[in-house]
């Protein structure tokens, strides 16, 4: 991880299948400043590496919500 990157771990409620994982991955990857996304269905979690000068935790949570899931 680079010095100007942060990592956010989000619990995500409402994912039930691989299609859900793809949806969450797609919306998070589309947020400007996101460098990488790893979504685990089994863990119900997303790990997002991002540039804090371009986005933040609130924007990432809103992206998950826009896909119909509940970030915690």
In terms of DSSP E residues, the strand content is 25-35%
Tell me the helix content.
25-40%
Q: How many strand elements?
A: 4
Averaged pLDDT, please? 96
Q: Count of helical segments?
A: 2
CATH topology: Alpha-Beta Plaits
Number of domains: 1
Separation of the first and last Cα atoms: 23 Å
Under the CATH scheme, which architecture would be assigned? 2-Layer Sandwich
What is the succession of H and E elements? EHEEHE
Largest beta sheet, briefly?
A: 4 strands, antiparallel
Whole-angstrom Rg:
11 Å
Assign an overall shape.
Answer: globular
- Structural class assignment: alpha+beta
Low-confidence stretches: none
CATH classification class? Alpha Beta
Strand order, biggest sheet? 2-3-1-4
Give the SSE layout:
Layout: E1 6-13, H1 18-29, E2 34-40, E3 45-50, H2 57-66, E4 70-71
Antiparallel strand pairs: 1-3, 1-4, 2-3
Describe this structure in words.
By secondary structure, the protein is an alpha+beta fold. It has a single domain, classed as Alpha-Beta Plaits (2-Layer Sandwich), CATH 3.30.70. Helix content is about 30%, strand content about 30%. Strands 2-3-1-4 form a 4-stranded antiparallel sheet. Strand 2 and strand 3 (about 45-50) form a beta hairpin.
In short:
This protein has 72 residues and is of the alpha+beta class.
Main attributes of the structure:
72 residues; Alpha-Beta Plaits; 4-stranded antiparallel sheet; alpha+beta; 4 strands
């Amino acid at each position: 991880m680079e010095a100007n990157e942060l990592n956010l771990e989000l619990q995500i409620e409402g994912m039930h299948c691989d299609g859900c994982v793809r949806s969450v991955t797609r919306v998070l990857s589309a947020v400007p400043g996101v460098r990488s996304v790893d979504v685990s269905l089994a863990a119900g979690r997303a790990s997002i590496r991002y540039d804090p000068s371009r986005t933040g935790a609130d924007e990432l949570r809103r992206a998950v919500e826009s896909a119909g899931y509940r970030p915690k």
